[in-house]
Amino acid sequence: MQTDLPTKKARGRLGRDAQAKLGQQLRVMFDEVVSEGVPDRFNDLLRRLDDPKDGETA
After folding, report:
1. Cβ 20 vs Cβ 14: under 8 Å
2. pTM beyond 0.70, yes or no
């Protein structure tokens, strides 16, 4: 009879240099996304979802 014993997963660790490089690349990528702004159609949708009278059902 074979039993399945819980096994520990190997945990990968990044060195400080790799963490710093990854963080730098993520900041660059997300700074570009943030600077794009929100399209007007999304703002309109969010405004309608937040408006209580638009959410009422008759």
Report:
1. no
2. no
- Name residues of the chain where pLDDT drops below 50: 58
Query: Could you give the C-alpha distances from 23 to 18, 20, 30, 36, in angstroms and in order?
Result: 8, 5, 11, 20
Domain boundaries, the chain: 17-50
Half-sphere exposure for 6 (CA within 13 Å, toward CB): 1
Query: What's the token pair of residue 22?
Result: 């990854």
Classify each residue of 31-51 as buried b or exposed e, where b means 16 or more C-beta atoms within 10 Å of its C-beta: eeeeeeeeeeeeeeeeeeeee
